[in-house]
Amino acid sequence: MKEKISKKFQELFNTSGTFFASPGRINLIGEHTDYNGGFVFPGAIDKGMIAEIKPNGTGKVRAFSIDLNDYAEFGLTENDAPQASWARYIFGVCREIIKRGGNIQGFDTTFAGDVPLGAGMSSSAALESTYAFALNELFDLNIDKFELAKIGQSTEHNYCGVNCGIMDQFASVFGKKGHLIRLDCRSLEYKYFPFDPEAAGYKLVLLDSVVKHELASSAYNKRRQSCENVVAAIKRNHPEVEFLRDATMDMLNEVKADVSAEDYMRAEYVIEEIQRVLDVCDALEKGDYETVGEKMYGTHHGMSKLYEVSCEELDFLNDIAKECGVTGSRVMGGGFGGCTINLVKADKYDAFVAKAFAEYTKKFGHEPKLYNVVISDGARRLA
Ligand code: GAF
User: GHMP kinase C-terminal domain spans which residues (predicted)?
Assistant: First the structure.
């Protein structure tokens, strides 16, 4: 990948720059808990974005996306937002740095990635983290890693229309080889957990439904709004409650008559999911993969029936996993398409994959995709 990036850089700008990379992520458990101040349990993966960058001494950014074969040029003021959605990620990162007082100038860049787009592995966070990390280094800004993650998150909020939580950008910046990160999204305290399913006789495999349903970002924002509605209702009796993380099922039941049935279901899922993350972390510390798997199925059920962010294709893949005796399986990421994450005993792996491919293709007329991922390091400068 580096070769094609540098070839294009040379061709467009007649010079060479510095390489930076940031990964996508998986999440073992804890979906839609981040913006509720809850826990998540992601890990960075060996797929991500690589960019070559060089300051150009002007007020303009000149950027080329190799994967999309598209060029964009834009200035750094709020009025300079580019049209292309991929370029808005880079523009947004620049703007968020400038808003925080960071003194940056124009630069030239080419980039490419191998995180599948729309598969729920956070290609956009990988892109944001690459540029946040790179600009911090190249312009000597001294921004700490927490703020780099927040710059990516604010880019999503203010320039891409998604009111996301902090999980994806955090994992992309803080990722550590061979470790998952239990992140408390309220305090941003985090702990690395060694994670080596292979050593315990398991494989971790992602099955991509290769579907992405329309309006995913507005549906995502709507879920977040539901959670905030419930918090507002609970707060009337419990002013200390800032997030659903601070609420209990008893508190939720107290306001059952005051919130919509839909908002109630959303909150029920979130409260249960936050507990599942803690249960999975405890189980993993004991090497109890069976409990980990059971909780993953619990998450899928909640995401499908209460949070309603699954879809026919993902439910189908989940059912096949169950039929094949897969230890744990669930929709991963925001939902509305993308991947299932599956924890499979090594001796069941081949039969599961064969059946999933055959039956999925028969039912939906196209194959799913399979990704084996390795838990890897976060944002970095490349040699
Ligand atoms: C998306 C968001 F970007 C994350 O912040 C998180 O909410 C996730 O969906 C669901 O857990 O990836």
Answer: 283-356
Question: Which residue type, as a one-letter code, is found at position 340?
Answer: T
Which protein residues are within 6 Å of ligand 1, measured from CB? 31-32, 34-35, 122, 164-165, 167-168, 333-334
Does this complex have an ipTM over 0.85? yes
User: CA-CA distance, 289 to 345, in Å (whole number)?
Assistant: 10
Task: Report the C-alpha gap between 53 and 108 in whole angstroms.
Answer: 6
pLDDT-derived band at 214, boundaries 50, 70, 90: low
Looking at ligand 1, which residue's alpha carbon is closest to its atom 3? 164
Count other C-beta atoms under 10 Å from residue 89's C-beta: 26
Question: Cα of 225 to ligand 1 centre, how many Å?
Answer: 14
Q: What angle do CA 135, 139, 140 make, to 5 degrees?
A: 110
Residue 301's identity, in one-letter code, is H
User: For all residues of the chain together, what is the average pLDDT?
Assistant: 97
CA distance 153 to 239: 27
29, 34, 220: which to mutate for ligand 1, most atoms within 8 A of CB?
Answer: 34
Contact 245, 186 (CB under 8 A): yes
Virtual torsion, Cα 316, 317, 322, 328, nearest 10 deg: -140
**Ligand 1, closest atom to CA 334?**
9
- Reported in sequence order, the residue ranges of 146-282 that DSSP labels E, i.e. its strands, are 179-184, 190-194, 202-212
